[in-house]
């Protein structure tokens, strides 16, 4: 499975000689590389090299070879990743079905493009992204001299993948110690649950995590995060009724003192229209910077994929207030509005680090443009 973060190895942790081997990175398009099952390897000493081998298999950590040219046909994915793609297809089925019905006709004409425009708009792709996709699709149809409507769907998947590709970016852990991640979002978007899932992934990959329960306004928010802390066996900094900025400051300070790899700061849910609350989020960011110059190193926004164009409005508002570095898109399963990622890519291309299609821990995975486009139009 593709790992969703990278940790830099220090010279002291890197052996002088390592056998050559493939390096699989999160940003690499799985359509252009096969994930081979790693062969048994001798025990490695503790450190970054052992972590890299655990995450990527034997040979990880060496200089990466030149990226291969994209192949005409996608190579097979690893079984775990393939299982995830199947869940993604199931989650996006409502959106995909409404678009796929457009290509059941027998002719490529203006009527087909008009129906496709309606379907894309209904999927909350947005006016600008819809027009971009239609123009790009018509160009591809003309260049390839495609005459079958069913083949046009494949060209649309290519156009959508190209539009979404700027959103691909791996979450990097290890450039700072600790890496401070501030997480924001509106109430009900799945923010605290996403933090718990991310904590699980980090802990499973050998990262020491400290949680900051800076959502001091919502009843039971501290308890909910505490349950995740207990489940993942990580520490948590919290204060009943405390000031959110003060809790964040204490957590970052504690993370530095205890040598933690990651400090995850859970902030209270905010509506972009509540300006005084948005200003308080900005205050939390400033206070975190006082505890650790340069922090927060990542500012993530959790958005609900069911909210469609409202999610785009949230991205704009939170980006203006906090300078977002990444998104977590949740609840894509069962929604007919999965096209909102195209609108985000066209109008506010903040990287999408993770997408979620369910409540289970394994239902949160890294975002890949081609996987998403193919799953949407399957």
UniProtKB/TrEMBL annotation:
<dbReference type="Pfam" id="PF00448">
    <property type="entry name" value="SRP54"/>
</dbReference>
<comment type="similarity">
    <text>Belongs to the GTP-binding SRP family. FtsY subfamily.</text>
</comment>
<dbReference type="InterPro" id="IPR013822">
    <property type="entry name" value="Signal_recog_particl_SRP54_hlx"/>
</dbReference>
<feature type="domain" description="SRP54-type proteins GTP-binding">
    <location>
        <begin position="351"/>
        <end position="364"/>
    </location>
</feature>
<dbReference type="GO" id="GO:0006614">
    <property type="term" value="P:SRP-dependent cotranslational protein targeting to membrane"/>
</dbReference>
<comment type="subunit">
    <text>Part of the signal recognition particle protein translocation system, which is composed of SRP and FtsY. SRP is a ribonucleoprotein composed of Ffh and a 4.5S RNA molecule.</text>
</comment>
<keyword id="KW-0963">Cytoplasm</keyword>
<keyword id="KW-0472">Membrane</keyword>
<keyword id="KW-0342">GTP-binding</keyword>
<dbReference type="Pfam" id="PF02881">
    <property type="entry name" value="SRP54_N"/>
</dbReference>
<dbReference type="GO" id="GO:0003924">
    <property type="term" value="F:GTPase activity"/>
</dbReference>
<dbReference type="GO" id="GO:0005525">
    <property type="term" value="F:GTP binding"/>
</dbReference>
<feature type="compositionally biased region" description="Low complexity">
    <location>
        <begin position="26"/>
        <end position="47"/>
    </location>
</feature>
<dbReference type="InterPro" id="IPR027417">
    <property type="entry name" value="P-loop_NTPase"/>
</dbReference>
<dbReference type="GO" id="GO:0005047">
    <property type="term" value="F:signal recognition particle binding"/>
</dbReference>
<keyword id="KW-0378">Hydrolase</keyword>
<keyword id="KW-0675">Receptor</keyword>
<dbReference type="InterPro" id="IPR000897">
    <property type="entry name" value="SRP54_GTPase_dom"/>
</dbReference>
<dbReference type="GO" id="GO:0005886">
    <property type="term" value="C:plasma membrane"/>
</dbReference>
<feature type="binding site">
    <location>
        <begin position="266"/>
        <end position="270"/>
    </location>
    <ligand>
        <name>GTP</name>
    </ligand>
</feature>
<dbReference type="InterPro" id="IPR036225">
    <property type="entry name" value="SRP/SRP_N"/>
</dbReference>
<keyword id="KW-1003">Cell membrane</keyword>
<protein>
    <recommendedName>
        <fullName>Signal recognition particle receptor FtsY</fullName>
        <ecNumber>3.6.5.4</ecNumber>
    </recommendedName>
</protein>
<dbReference type="InterPro" id="IPR004390">
    <property type="entry name" value="SR_rcpt_FtsY"/>
</dbReference>
<feature type="binding site">
    <location>
        <begin position="185"/>
        <end position="192"/>
    </location>
    <ligand>
        <name>GTP</name>
    </ligand>
</feature>
<dbReference type="GO" id="GO:0005737">
    <property type="term" value="C:cytoplasm"/>
</dbReference>
<comment type="function">
    <text>Involved in targeting and insertion of nascent membrane proteins into the cytoplasmic membrane. Acts as a receptor for the complex formed by the signal recognition particle (SRP) and the ribosome-nascent chain (RNC). Interaction with SRP-RNC leads to the transfer of the RNC complex to the Sec translocase for insertion into the membrane, the hydrolysis of GTP by both Ffh and FtsY, and the dissociation of the SRP-FtsY complex into the individual components.</text>
</comment>
<feature type="region of interest" description="Disordered">
    <location>
        <begin position="1"/>
        <end position="47"/>
    </location>
</feature>
<dbReference type="InterPro" id="IPR003593">
    <property type="entry name" value="AAA+_ATPase"/>
</dbReference>
<feature type="binding site">
    <location>
        <begin position="330"/>
        <end position="333"/>
    </location>
    <ligand>
        <name>GTP</name>
    </ligand>
</feature>
<keyword id="KW-0547">Nucleotide-binding</keyword>
<dbReference type="InterPro" id="IPR042101">
    <property type="entry name" value="SRP54_N_sf"/>
</dbReference>
């Amino acid at each position: 499975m593709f790992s969703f973060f990278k940790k830099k190895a220090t010279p002291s942790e890197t052996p002088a000689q390592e056998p050559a081997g493939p390096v699989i990175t999160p940003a690499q398009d799985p359509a252009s590389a096969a994930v081979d099952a790693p062969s048994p390897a001798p025990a490695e000493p503790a450190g970054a090299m052992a972590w890299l081998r655990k995450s990527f298999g034997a040979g990880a950590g060496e200089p990466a070879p030149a990226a291969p040219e994209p192949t005409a046909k996608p190579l097979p994915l690893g079984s775990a990743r393939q299982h995830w793609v199947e869940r993604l297809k199931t989650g996006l089925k409502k959106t995909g079905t409404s678009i796929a019905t457009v290509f059941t006709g027998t002719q490529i004409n203006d009527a087909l493009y008009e129906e496709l425009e309606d379907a894309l708009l209904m999927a909350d792709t947005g006016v600008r992204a819809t027009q971009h996709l239609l123009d790009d699709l018509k160009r591809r149809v003309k260049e390839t001299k495609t005459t079958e409507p069913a083949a046009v769907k494949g060209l649309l998947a290519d156009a959508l993948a190209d539009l979404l590709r700027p959103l691909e970016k791996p979450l990097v852990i290890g450039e700072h110690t600790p890496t401070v991640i501030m997480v924001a979002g509106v109430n009900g978007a799945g923010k605290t649950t996403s933090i718990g899932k991310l904590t699980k992934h980090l802990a499973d990959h050998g990262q020491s995590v400290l949680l900051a329960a800076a959502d001091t306004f919502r009843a039971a928010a501290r308890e909910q995060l505490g349950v995740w802390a207990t489940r993942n066996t990580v520490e948590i900094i919290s204060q009943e009724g405390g000031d959110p900025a003060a809790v964040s400051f204490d957590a970052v300070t504690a993370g530095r003192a205890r040598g933690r790899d990651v400090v995850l700061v859970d902030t209270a849910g905010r509506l972009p229209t509540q300006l005084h609350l948005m200003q308080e989020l900005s205050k939390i960011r400033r206070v975190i910077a006082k505890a650790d110059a340069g922090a927060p190193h990542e500012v993530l926004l959790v958005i609900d994929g069911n909210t469609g164009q409202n999610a785009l409005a949230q991205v704009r508002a939170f980006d203006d207030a906090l300078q977002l570095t990444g998104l977590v898109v949740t609840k894509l399963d069962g929604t007919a509005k999965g096209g909102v990622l195209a609108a985000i890519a066209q109008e506010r291309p903040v990287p999408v680090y993770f997408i979620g299609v369910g409540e289970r821990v394994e239902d949160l995975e890294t975002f890949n443009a081609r996987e998403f486009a193919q799953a949407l139009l399957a």
